[in-house]
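Might you be able to check the backbone structure tokens below? Thank you kindly.
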Amino acid sequence: ENAALHFEEIKKKETFKRFLDYFVSTQDAEAKQETETNGLSCSDNVLMLPMNDQIKELQTIIRDVNTSSSDFLFNADRLIRLVVEESLNLLPYSPWTVETPTSNFYKGVRFSTGNCGVSIVRSGEVMEKGLRECCRSMRIGKILILKDHDTGDAKVMYAKLIADIAKRHILLLYPVMNSGKTVAKAIEILRSHGVSVRNIILVNLFCTPHSLDVLRDEFPDLRIVTSECDDNPPNHFCEKYFGTSM
């Protein structure tokens, strides 16, 4: 009888251990899936906005076919502002002490000099307003890149950049990225003007896993800030923002 009770006790412990192992493995799998969904597993150089209900709602409204033009603009600008604000955290700052109205001194920071924006025309222009609202004095250059209908390759048609751009940190504006070819071509133009890839921050709203792989393979030092990495980005974004369709 004692042996039977001992055997039953062992079975209960083994059953509980199997259940515990299963529970832990399930939790690990869910955590891994959530991390991959949020894009946090991409790399140290890819910063995904932490997913929360507010950001998810903005992404939902932007995708909804029934969203009015005014609601689309309002919520698109909100998402742009969030991504721009996060990108500004990657720019260099320097210590700065100020005197307060109560004659105290506060040790803070301020932007180091030498920052600018570059928008990839035309879609990148939707993000210029958000950047200027955060940094009113920041200068913004432009690069126009079109796809060659015969080869499918990106072709530079126009580039207007700041004279001393090689000395600056750059926020490269491009909201929706599918293949990564257009951004790669823009980075090549910046490099031809003496810009280090380490000084470029891609400010993006939506991208595909493929486009991230392309850019990380070609430019491992490039830093990318985005709100979402998904195989089906809202490719109607710029057309609806400018009111040319939808």
